[in-house]
Design goal:
The chain is built from 20 helices and 21 strands. It is an alpha+beta fold. The strands form 6 sheets. Strands 2, 3, 4, 5, 8, 16 and 17 form a 7-stranded mixed sheet that branches. A 5-stranded antiparallel sheet has the order 10-9-21-20-19, with helices on both faces. A 3-stranded antiparallel sheet has the order 1-6-7. The chain is elongated, with a radius of gyration of 35 Å.
Length: 575
């Protein structure tokens, strides 16, 4: 009996020893593995992405932000453990509007995290939640929201389903705006239901940076509305309105309409077109700066018909003779071509490049074109005539408004910029935009003289009279560019690109506004279509920025040529 008891006791002791050894192994040696198995049973780790950074206008108003929308995800392994995939698919098919077969395919995936539907209606999310199906989870996700509406659609751009930038500012600054990735631990019960979660990194630390633009939101809205109205009114293919501070290069508004312009994501930077008569400003400023012409001399108007190599030039208003002021005021093709001849191709080409044509401006925006400027080796005998009046050269709206801003800014070409600052979510300034001088293009004397010449364009009798604003001196230039028809190998008057660029106030230029209307249906000119559009935007900008009307000139009765020559004399004397 005693021997049997001893045997039993030995077995019992060995049993306890085995249990003890097993406990030591579980608690010490295999602790990590068992802890991981335990976590897998009651924890789910999901990757979460921080909110995309907001975009603000120059005044701090929100142009792009985020809003939270519910989405549905699943863990197929939990669903299979607690229910039938087919039954679950049948229960959620109706509220989701997804076929049962497709749901079965998603619920049978081997992954432990599967998106079933993004952007659920709150009511649908509530219906799914009330079903209490283990393995189904409602997750809130961020979606982009644009409070400003259509006025900012092209400028700001869009994001994809993954919240990454696809176009516009969203694309250009995607890296800065994108949030950071973090982890979220979801605690689940034995039945697979989630009951709370905790973030491995605080959500506010995951947010993207804040982009503040130079754009003025109110001016942008008004410019876009005015542009859309004009495009609809004249049944055009589209248009552009650009507003720039010539002293800094800051873009204050970039409105565009591309409803009939295939492939033009944002025509303000991507549209390449022949500028027409606005380009006469480049020709005139180069000739004045080189002293190739003087203000008082007269040019033969040839009665509106001027024979050149390979063709003939016409003026809509035939003239016997014109000075430089008259050439710009009447937008004479014949007169400006003679000014271009005075320069000669090498010097003219040099100034075209100085003004920034034939190269990207460097504006931080995707899709910018460099335009078209052929090298001198490809110029024909006719090129000097054609380019002088804005043909045989391709420019972009942003190039043109930047070049005219140099004329308004004492001859200093500024690099256009759209972003004034980039800050972290906690307010730390990461980058600050500053005005950047590219180069001096023309002298201050030439700048002031040319602005005086441009005033006459907007005076009664000038082609830009419709751009005049009561109480303000406006300097401007019209452009009516005939569109080249490759089939007929000729320019057609039936399709034009009409434009007007204006500088104001002339005494202390703080705004340069370019208005372009692309291919209006009926016969039109820059002075009849684009000039009124300029005036509408300019009037709003003057009031919005509180730009005061200058005091009346000392001698308002002076004739235009006398005023210009007097101004030139002052400049020469160092005034």
């Amino acid at each position: 009996m005693k021997s049997r008891t001893r045997v039993i006791m030995v077995f019992v002791l060995f049993g306890f020893l085995g249990v003890a050894l097993r406990l030591v192994f579980v608690q010490a040696v295999g602790r990590g593995n068992y802890a991981q198995l335990s976590l897998k049973e009651h924890q789910r780790i999901l990757l979460v992405h921080g909110e995309r950074g907001v975009v603000l206008d120059r005044n701090g108003d929100v142009l792009a932000s985020n809003r939270s929308l519910p989405g549905l995800v699943c863990d197929p392994t939990v669903i299979k453990k607690h229910s039938s995939v087919l039954k679950v698919a049948q229960k959620i098919s109706s509220p989701l509007g997804i076929p049962v077969s497709r749901l079965v395919s998603m619920l049978n995936k081997k992954s432990r995290f599967v998106w079933i539907r993004h952007d659920l209606f709150p009511q649908t999310a509530s219906e799914i939640r009330d079903l209490h199906i283990p393995g189904l989870y409602i997750m809130n996700e961020e979606r982009r929201f644009y409070p400003g509406g259509e006025a900012f659609h092209t400028l700001i751009g869009t994001t994809g389903t993954d919240n990454s930038g696809l176009s516009g500012i969203e694309r250009k600054f995607d890296r800065e705006l994108s949030g950071h990735t973090g982890g979220r631990i979801i605690e689940v019960s034995a039945r697979g239901r989630s009951y709370f979660f905790r973030d491995l990194v605080p959500p506010e630390k995951l947010s993207g940076n804040v982009i503040r633009l130079t754009i003025d939101g109110e001016l942008q809205k008004y410019a876009q509305l005015s542009l859309d109205e004009e495009v609809d009114k004249v049944q055009a293919e589209g248009g552009v309105v650009l507003v720039m501070n010539p002293k800094t290069g800051a873009v204050l508004a970039m409105a565009s309409n591309n409803k009939g312009m295939a492939g033009q994501i944002n025509p303000a930077v991507s549209m390449v077109y022949e500028p027409g008569s606005i380009f006469k400003l480049v020709t005139a400023s180069a000739a004045l700066n080189e002293k190739a012409v003087s203000l008082g001399e007269q040019f033969d108007g040839h009665d509106g018909v001027f024979y050149i190599p390979g063709g003939v030039l016409h003026d809509d208003e035939p003239q016997k003779s014109l000075n430089l002021a008259g050439i710009l005021a009447k937008s004479s093709n014949i007169g400006i071509s003679q000014v271009g001849l005075r320069l000669g191709p090498p010097r003219f080409y040099h100034y075209i490049r100085l003004f920034g044509f034939g190269a990207r401006t460097g504006i931080p925006y995707p899709g910018e074109s460099s335009g078209i400027l052929h090298p001198l080796s490809r110029w024909s005998h006719r090129s000097i005539y054609s380019i002088s009046m804005g043909q045989e050269i391709g420019v972009t709206p942003i190039q043109l408004v930047t070049a005219v801003s140099a004329i308004a800014n004492g001859g200093k070409l500024m690099e256009p910029f759209l972003v004034s600052s980039i800050t972290s979510p906690d307010g730390e300034t990461i980058w600050k935009g500053k005005p950047h001088l590219v180069r001096d293009v023309i002298s201050r004397k030439t700048s002031r003289t040319l602005l005086g010449l441009m005033e006459n364009v907007v005076s009664p009798g000038g082609t830009g009279a419709n751009a005049s604003i009561s109480g303000y001196d406006v300097a401007g230039k019209t452009g009516t560019a005939q569109v080249y028809d490759p089939l007929k190998r000729a320019y057609t008057r039936r399709r034009t690109i009409d434009s007007f660029v204006g500088v104001l106030p002339v005494q202390d230029p703080s705004l340069v506004i370019l208005a372009i209307i692309v291919k209006p249906k009926s016969l039109s000119w820059g002075g009849t279509v684009a000039a009124p559009l300029f005036r509408k935007v300019a009037q709003m900008a003057l009031v919005h920025f509180g730009i005061p009307s200058p005091p009346p000139s000392a001698s308002p009765a002076e004739s235009y040529p006398v005023r210009i020559i007097a101004e030139a004399k002052k400049i020469k004397e160092g005034d």
